[in-house]
Amino acid sequence: MIRKQARQRRDYLYRRALLLRDAEVSEKRAKLRASLASGKPLDPSIANDKSLRKDYQYDESTPDLGVNEQLDLDDEYAQLSGIVDPRVLVSTSRDPSARLSAFAKEIRLLLPTSIRMNRGNLILPDLVKSAQSAGLSDIVLLHEHRGTPTALTLSHFPHGPTVSFSLHNVVLRHDIPGSVRGTVSESYPHLIFDGFTSPLGKRIVKVLKHLFPPREAITSKNKMGNRVVTFKNIEDSIEVRHHVFVRTGYDSVELAEVGPRMTMRPFEIRGGTLENKDGDVEWHLSQYTRTAKKKNYL
């Protein structure tokens, strides 16, 4: 079984690498055709690439799909997105503190179709194996330092990706002034993503939104729901807020924060699942990024 999963993962990553290469060639050929049709000068890196002219006459009928459009055809989430609700496992590092356990419980309440499991003494490969055998779609692993949540690792099954975030300014429900007390609503939330404009930002959005089940179409007031989760990107820091709302008029609502409240900063996207340390690194925060000229990646 383990060999079969490893073979399937290798085959998937190999197909994706070939698709990425072919998509880049197709995009360059589309720019070449557009330049020939308009008479505008072409970028020297494309004009001097003789490999683009190979079989050019047989490429006229192929659609001019960009890299991202072609990758979406073989996307990790494309097969079951919108068809089957995600089943997310929320767990922690071993021997968690009381604060990390409380934070894991609040993350479980934030994700309506998730389950929480006490890790005990399970090592990482066994944890991933048990999650896959139970038919779960994702795993969220929380880490801490001296009782303070410091990192969140998100891995999608069966072939990845695995995204790592650092956590900052984590505030639990009962520490938020004026937050809603009592039972937390577990209705499917509305999602708000703001400020994600780059390809990397859209990749992060795709990973995060597939942790939540899709909502039904709003056909009446009863199907409006009463929860909203916001992810706002501010200079590569993702501010996360969780609110409930009540309609107070035809075009007005009243918000009340539920929590938890936190700031997430991505630092690595890796192919493969959580236990696979040899997966290809799609993106990582460079060691010189903080000292170089400020650049927003998301």
Automatic annotation (TrEMBL):
Membrane-spanning parts: none
Domain of life: Eukaryota
Stored PROSITE patterns: BRIX (PS50833)
GO cellular component, one term: Mpp10 complex
Positions of the Brix domain: 86-275
InterPro entries: Brix, IMP4/RPF1
One Gene Ontology term of the molecular function aspect: snoRNA binding
GO biological process, one term: rRNA processing
PANTHER family the UniProt entry points to: U3 SMALL NUCLEOLAR RIBONUCLEOPROTEIN PROTEIN IMP4 (PTHR22734)
Protein name (record): U3 small nucleolar ribonucleoprotein protein IMP4
Protein source organism: Metarhizium anisopliae (strain ARSEF 549)
